[in-house]
Amino acid sequence: MQFNYIANASLPSSSGRTIAVLDPSDGQPYDDIQRSNASDIDHAVRAARQGLDAVWCKLSAAERGRLLMRLSLTITEHAQELAAIEQRDCGKPTKQARADAAALARYFEFYAGACDKLHGETLPYMDGYSVLTWREPHGVTGHVIPWNYPMQIFGRSVGGALAAGNVCVVKPAEDACLSLIRVAQLAAEVGFPAGVINIVTGYGHEVGDALAHHPGIDHISFTGSPAVGTLIQQVAAQRHCPVTLELGGKSPQIVFADADLDAAVPAIINAIVQNAGQTCSAGSRLLVDQAIYEPLLERLGQAFENLRVGPAAMDLDLGPLIRQQQQQRVWDFLSDAHVANIAMVAQGKVVDEAPETGFYQAPTLLRDVPVMHRLAQEEVFGPVLCAMSFRDEDQAVEMANATQFGLVAGVWTADGARQFRMARRLRCGQVFINNYGAGGGVELPFGGVKSSGHGREKGFEALYGFTTLKTVAIKHG
Q: What pLDDT, in 10s, does the model give residues 128-161?
């Protein structure tokens, strides 16, 4: 049985109800979390406010940084434990779970070093005045963490908020929250004051809604679907609460005829099969110069046929999807492709050892997908790659920008002038040229435009979103 973690204490929900935790690899329950409600959120917000006023706001930036560094080191010491928790809870292959634990430690390391480097400015003004700006924390920040990368997104969201001087109330996805409860416990063990990190589990319509409505929350960070992001933003707007939103993508990989295909092919494959395609920045649309369309599809098809899907512990190319509803969602998209006579180039294989009760989906490569078909417009959130060809650079840009999303784009070309032209013309928050993801560096600001959201996480830029700017004007004499 897992409990909420509020003010450095493990507590049952006030409702007394629980939610079963399922292992995606076999679909079977193996633990329970608390089904919390508005009362539990209120308790957590009050505990956070007390922790902020009594201790956290009185620590120097350097002292906060030392605590974040201790937590980073402790996460590294417990990386195997955290990876094992994440693997079973989320269905992640071993290598992915370990990478997520390492990324979590790196986020806290980065933000530990940033704590005492968040500076204000002095501004030139009229004679007789001194004008300066201060960066101040919002106060109590609310964080709604999704199920696809709980550790990573906790690190980049909560880590940034703490570095800026805030305290946090965290609502993890009900499908994936066990690792975050453990991280909160580790934070208490290394000396984080009570109330600085609080974890409240439960359903979005009960706990997430209560968090968004609570008048004691001063800023909300949400990663999830555009529909839910819209609801959270509407609720927050009623009390003028600022919101950072990361709402997914339909990211294009754009391959020109002069691209280095030896470098591009493995990156294209990884960008759609990583985490079983359950990645906001998944490269789910493949736009290919018509001069190399057929040979590239043949090469990718052979690679897809060699991909293997199975239980997380087998550490194959892909693990299971997170839950049956997500599996059904992917099946529905593929059914639509069949109805529309969209051809399948190749498909990987679910291994025989995979339990029939697990939530598996073989990676699938489709070709000649119409630009406006829902497969090319909506986020599948599964290992489905949609290929289409373009005539020239202008058409490539038009196709790439032809969705509601604007999170990430990949461009593969040896032409230096084209690299910069494409980077300018693509409407998205990140453009990766001759790579995809740049190794996932924590220093790189991350976020989108259009329906992919607004605000930035990761890097130093994220700290500005977790602060307010105060201007101080002093008249001399």
A: 999 999 999 999 999 999 999 999 999 999 999 9
Distance in angstroms (rounded) separating the CA atoms of residues 275 and 149: 9
Q: Where are the beta strands (DSSP E) in 173-318?
A: 197-199, 219-223, 243-246, 252-255, 285-289, 308-309
CA atoms within 13 A on the CB side of 2: 30
pLDDT (average), residues 443-454 = 96
CA-to-CA dists, residue 260 to 256, 265, 294, 392, 421, angstroms: 9, 9, 16, 18, 19
Distance of alpha carbon 169 from alpha carbon 208, whole angstroms: 11
Residues 316, 309 contacting (CB under 8 angstroms): yes
For helices 94-114 and 79-90, the axis angle rounded to 10 degrees is 120
**Cα–Cα distance measured from residue 324 to residue 322, given in angstroms and rounded to the nearest whole number:** 7
**Torsion angle, CA of 186/190/192/197, rounded to 10 degrees?**
-10
- What is the distance between the alpha carbons of residues 467 and 470, in angstroms, rounded to a whole number? 10
Residues marked active site are found at: 246, 280
Phi, psi dihedrals of residue 71, rounded to the nearest 5°: -65, -40
| Cα separation values, 44 from 48, 156, 190, 413, Å | 6, 21, 20, 51
Q: Please name the helix (run of DSSP H) or strand (run of DSSP E) that holds residue 55, with its range, or none.
A: none
| Domains delineated in the chain | 4-247 (3.40.605.10), 252-440 (3.40.309.10)
pLDDT of residue 439: 77
Residue closest to 86 by CA, chosen among 358, 322, 328, 350 = 322
- Helical H runs in 306-387? 324-339, 374-377
The two beta strands, 4-6 and 9-11, are: antiparallel
Q: Are strands 18-23 and 28-34 parallel, antiparallel or unpaired?
A: antiparallel
Could you tell me which of 376, 398, 477 has the C-alpha nearest to residue 128?
477
With a cut of 80, say whether residue 107 has pLDDT above it. Answer: yes
| Torsional sign, CA 310, 312, 313, 317 | positive
Amino acid letter, residue 216: G
DSSP secondary structure of 166-209: -EEEEEE-TTS-HHHHHHHHHHHHTTPPTTSEEE--S-IIIIIH
Q: Which residues pair with 21 in a beta bridge?
A: 31
Average pLDDT over residues 195-212: 97
Number of helical (H) and strand (E) elements in the chain, helices listed first: 15, 22
Q: In what order do the strands lie in the sheet with 467-475?
A: 122-123, 129-137, 467-475
Model-level pTM greater than 0.85?
yes
Q: Closest Cα to residue 445, out of 464, 427, 460?
A: 460
Strands (DSSP E) found in 307-448 = 308-309, 344-347, 349-350, 364-366, 384-390, 408-412, 430-433
Average pLDDT, the chain: 97
